[in-house]
Amino acid sequence: TNTPGPPLLVETRAAMALLAFIVASLALVASASSEIMSDVNGRLSSDLPLDGVRVVLNGGAYSAIPRQDGSFVIHSVRPGTYLLEVQDVQSIWPMVRLDVSAKAAGKLRALLTHNRQPVPFPLPLEPLVAKPVFFEKREGFQWSAMLMNPMVIVMGVTLLIMVVFPKMMANMDPEQLKEMQEMQGGLADMLNPDKLKEKQQQQLKDKRKEKRES
């Protein structure tokens, strides 16, 4: 029996190795083509606009931009476990742990990370808290605000006294006018510590003088 020489043996082994590589590649392609993908659906509900908001899985491995009504879809998610986050500069949203099944298409499970509560699909998400706004919105000019200003009130009262008080003084009886002037003088003395002290000393001297005379 004739046995193949060394060159023929080498060629046979090379052909077998090439055939094995082709079979393995075809099996890998078939496995990849048959891998089950799932879509993740949800809706964001917020009173604030959703401009610039993104929904991401594992920090950006998959992402979606919500529509105007807040709905979003993350397409063709491979089986595995993911962390769903809402990237928003205006609000803080809950994070969701997402499990995508490798056995059945569309079989998903979601849990809120902060309380371990299951979440149905489509995912109904609402912000946990709105982030604080550090810039106060400037209001327009308001007459009521200006009239309630203490400086404006003081100026108005002063102007009223300057206009009305002289007319009242002109129409008063001379005796009433004299009494008012005396009251004003007494009030001025009470507000002036030096004059008040001087008045008390004068009263004390008058009392001593009366005692001596008696």
From TrEMBL:
GO terms assigned for molecular function: carbohydrate binding
Keyword Translocase annotated: no
Membrane topology term: Single-pass membrane protein
Region feature (Disordered): 181-214
Assigned keywords, A-Z: Membrane, Signal, Transmembrane, Transmembrane helix
Compartments in which it is found: Membrane
GO cellular component terms given for this protein: EMC complex
Membrane-crossing segments per the record: 14-33, 147-165
Keyword Transmembrane helix among record annotations: yes
Primary site of residence: membrane
Residues of the ER membrane protein complex subunit 7 beta-sandwich domain: 51-154
Ranges of biased composition (kind: Basic and acidic residues): 192-214
UniProt record similarity statement: Belongs to the EMC7 family.
Record's protein name: ER membrane protein complex subunit 7 beta-sandwich domain-containing protein
Organism this protein belongs to: Prymnesium polylepis
Biological classification of the source: Eukaryota, Haptista, Haptophyta, Prymnesiophyceae, Prymnesiales
